Amino acid sequence: MHPTDFTLRGAIEALNEGLLTSVELTQAHLDAITALNPRLNAYVTVTAEQALAQAKASDARRAAGVAGPLEGVPLAIKDLFCTAGVRTTAGSRILDNFIPPYESTVSGNLLRDGAVFLGKVNLDEFAMGSSNTTSAFGPVENPWSRANDPDTRLVPGGSSGGSAAAVAARLALGATATDTGGSIRQPAAFCGIAGIKPTYGRCSRFGIVAFASSLDQAGPVARTVEDCAILLRSMAGFDPKDSTSADVPVPDFAAACARGVKGLRIGVPKEYRLEGTPPEIEALWEQGLAWLREQGAETVEISLPHTKYALPTYYIVAPAEASSNLARYDGVRFGRREKGADLKDLYERTRAAGFGAEVRRRIMIGTYVLSAGYYDAYYLKAQKIRALIKRDFDQAFANVDAIVTPATPSAAFGMDEKQDDPVTMYLNDVFTVTANLAGLPGLSVPSGLDAQGLPLGLQVIGRAFDEETVFAVGNAIEQAADFTALPRLRAGA
Amino acid sequence: MSFTIEGATGPWEIVCGLEVHAQVTSNAKLFSGAATAFGAAPNSQVSFVDAGFPGMLPVINRECVAQAVRTGLGLKAQINLWSRFDRKNYFYADLPQGYQISQYAHPIVGTGAIEIELADGSTKTIGITRLHLEQDAGKSLHDQHPTKSFIDLNRSGVALMEIVSEPDMRSPEEAGAYLTKLRQILRYLGTCDGNMDEGSMRADVNVSVRKAGEAYRTRCEVKNVNSIRFVMQAVEAEARRQIEVWESGGSVDQETRLFDTGRGVTRSMRSKEDAHDYRYFPDPDLPPLVLEAEWVEGLKATLPELPDARRARYVAMGLSPYDAHVLTLEKETAAYFETVAQGRDAKVAANWVTGDLFAAINRTKTSIAEPPVPAEHLGALLDLLANKTLSGTLAKTVFEAMIETGKSPGAIVQERGLRQVTDTGAIERMVDQVLEANADKVAEYRAGKEKLFGFFVGQVMKAMQGKGNPALVNEVVKKKLG
């Protein structure tokens, strides 16, 4: 067995049993990166030397009998998490020379638990995108391809495209990611892996480059639901440096995976049956519900009446916050600076040269919806609808324990597809944005393949801070789906 | 007494309201742990939060919130248990985040009031509209280099209270009295040091003019005025400018102006058309600020005594309203007075503090914070007066010696033998000598020239080198002349 084929849990066990060392495991992943990254472009920065040093130190700790829960496990870090001494770009030209002197709380928690960082992975610029094509460091390629059309390069989804592609191609055992409107769940579904956006407030946002503060949430992607559970336990926890971080205990998520679904009530929202959804996805959804019933769950139709407003609401709230959050990239104190005749000229040249088209578009949308005279009609209205969407879920969860939906309205698409009209691209988030607007946990589980042999995912949404039930349901789907298909581009293949 | 400015078309009334920015006294900034001391080297008190670095998040400083609540309580204002922080978005080189975190829609403190005292002894109530917490920006330095601007972020993120008054002031004097009283209250509370020359307190002055009985006319805002004197000058200068505009047939445009302290005039900074669209919206990094009623009650219970209450107490102790006013102007003066008056005659203590001590402070160019004579020493001197060890004259001599030497009055009396003589026998012998030596004057006195009585007393005191107990000397002289 090739070392990169381990699941994260399998690797921990192998390390514990002395079957291999962290240095060996890390080196195998670095070799795989060397071999495949030139094609996939998943990593923006590979920190090979630092990774091997961390692995060596980890092996020494293990030998000394002080192994953390993630001791020696090589991971990829989305380049939105600030890493002390390692360049952090947010996928943007405006930060292409930025080396933070501080560590994000989430990546710091992983280091505390013994993890090894292989490097920083690609993403849509400032996490704005659903195809990882807006990155200033070039697009990421999905390691999967269509059976009857293997030459068309597919997108990995976004914004955490680098994280998902790296994990699917076995260039890391797991990765950090972030999700503002679907940026963990959609790429996970496109790349045939699992990914969870936890409850808003579960993971600290300190040290993560902000996109939309009220929606951003960090979470893991990994090849199994259980691996996600293991990673999330290390990533999560109250952080006094983030005022929106929740002071609640972090349960043993991995233990919850095996709980089973017997007696659980699973909600099936009727508003998620969208016209134009491919029949394969409809069928997979039905199949997923059938698997859960077979394992003792009850499925019930529910209504989330404000669902149709979710996408427009999201595309007001997120750009509004982003337009303000990105004001600090002005060329004055850090990052790229273009010379200007005066201060205003410096701002305009720096931001024009530093931001890509999608980021500029969202800054303009956000500035517009917050402007005097438009604020009430757009931003304030969106906040009211957001409250109604949240109320929809509150009412639904009075009656059900979890909600199951498709993760995406399609499988991965070609790099040249859907690029002409931004709204077509925005529709990718139709099933995922609601969980962000309501602050709820959402898990994407690889559940089947379409006719082209591309992975499809199902989404499990849970009550706030009830990731345990989400993991139990996700694990049940994963077991029943027995998803063993592999991408064409992968280490060891 | 109403104040008006006489124009060509008759008298005009001034309408004035103030927005005061008061720096919160606290060790750390509003949303970061960086220090706030004045006068530190540029950019030496800046955290990554203050510099707006990627991924940095604000965390509210509890002490700054407590200071705002204390101030609200001191202004007899409504404390809002639910308030919220908004972002005020604009680009400037000394605003690292590209927005200022402020409380736009939901301030922590609502309506309150301040009572001001005017020179004619009258008082007036000025309404407080609101008080909110916000971050200060950094400082741009344009005079350090011919082509470059320098940025100092030490102030970036420092907590400010913006205290907004109602447009209740009608004269420069009232504006000055308001600012004086507000500063006095803040200093008593310890929530702002009120040092305007260090920028801890600055005022935006809103001024309009109108004819008697009219509704408000358009106002202008004079930004960032940094002394009480300049505020009074700015009110008058701006009012006169507006009267001229109205009377020459024009109309006043709503705009932001600056006060040119050198020329004593205001000039336009930006018009309403150029006004920023600040795109206020709730800061998503900060949940609403929710206070517990018990916590506010706790702050209220430990609030120090405020100037108005203290003045009333002094009057009740027997002081004149004027002395009570003077003694409470500065917190340090009141504290000094209270030490001196502790267990002693309050009126005597007040006389010495407002008389001899203030004179000595002026003469020696010291201050009440670093007085020429410690309050304990002055108290001891009053004890020596009370127990008749010293006469009033002797006490003045001892007081001067205390200033010169820094020694206690007891030590000075001991060293110089200045103890007053109360031995009746000694006084009688001295009186006899004086009357004997001035037999002619005694005859005149007895013939009816009674005003010579003071002469005899003076001669006796002189002969006794001032140490004779004045009451006893008087008594004995009277008896002997009898």
UniProtKB/TrEMBL annotation, chain A:
EC number: 6.3.5.7
Molecular function, one GO term: ATP binding
GO BP annotation list: translation
InterPro entries the record matches: Amidase (IPR000120), Amidase_CS (IPR020556), Amidase_dom (IPR023631), AS_sf (IPR036928), GatA (IPR004412)
Keywords for the protein's UniProt record, in alphabetical order: ATP-binding, Ligase, Nucleotide-binding, Protein biosynthesis
Catalytic reaction annotation: L-glutamyl-tRNA(Gln) + L-glutamine + ATP + H2O = L-glutaminyl-tRNA(Gln) + L-glutamate + ADP + phosphate + H(+)
HAMAP family named among the record's database cross-references: GatA
Protein's job: Allows the formation of correctly charged Gln-tRNA(Gln) through the transamidation of misacylated Glu-tRNA(Gln) in organisms which lack glutaminyl-tRNA synthetase. The reaction takes place in the presence of glutamine and ATP through an activated gamma-phospho-Glu-tRNA(Gln).
Similarity remark: Belongs to the amidase family. GatA subfamily.
Official protein name in the record: Glutamyl-tRNA(Gln) amidotransferase subunit A
Organism from which the protein derives: Siccirubricoccus deserti
TrEMBL record, chain B:
Classification via PANTHER family: GLUTAMYL-TRNA GLN AMIDOTRANSFERASE SUBUNIT B MITOCHONDRIAL AND PROKARYOTIC PET112-RELATED, GLUTAMYL-TRNA(GLN) AMIDOTRANSFERASE SUBUNIT B, MITOCHONDRIAL
One MF annotation (Gene Ontology) recorded for this entry: glutaminyl-tRNA synthase (glutamine-hydrolyzing) activity
Family membership: Belongs to the GatB/GatE family. GatB subfamily.
Function summary: Allows the formation of correctly charged Asn-tRNA(Asn) or Gln-tRNA(Gln) through the transamidation of misacylated Asp-tRNA(Asn) or Glu-tRNA(Gln) in organisms which lack either or both of asparaginyl-tRNA or glutaminyl-tRNA synthetases. The reaction takes place in the presence of glutamine and ATP through an activated phospho-Asp-tRNA(Asn) or phospho-Glu-tRNA(Gln).
Quaternary structure note: Heterotrimer of A, B and C subunits.
UniProt xrefs under PROSITE patterns: GATB
Catalytic activity: L-glutamyl-tRNA(Gln) + L-glutamine + ATP + H2O = L-glutaminyl-tRNA(Gln) + L-glutamate + ADP + phosphate + H(+); L-aspartyl-tRNA(Asn) + L-glutamine + ATP + H2O = L-asparaginyl-tRNA(Asn) + L-glutamate + ADP + phosphate + 2 H(+)
Protein name (record): Aspartyl/glutamyl-tRNA(Asn/Gln) amidotransferase subunit B
GO biological-process terms attached to the record: glutaminyl-tRNAGln biosynthesis via transamidation; translation
InterPro entries: Asn/Gln-tRNA_amidoTrfase_suB/E, Asn/Gln-tRNA_Trfase_suB/E_cat, Asn/Gln_amidotransferase, Asn/Gln_tRNA_amidoTrase-B-like, GatB, GatB_C_1, GatB_Yqey_C_2, Gln-tRNA_amidoTrfase_suB_CS
Annotated transmembrane regions: none
Chain's gene name: gatB
UniProt keywords, alphabetically: ATP-binding, Ligase, Nucleotide-binding, Protein biosynthesis
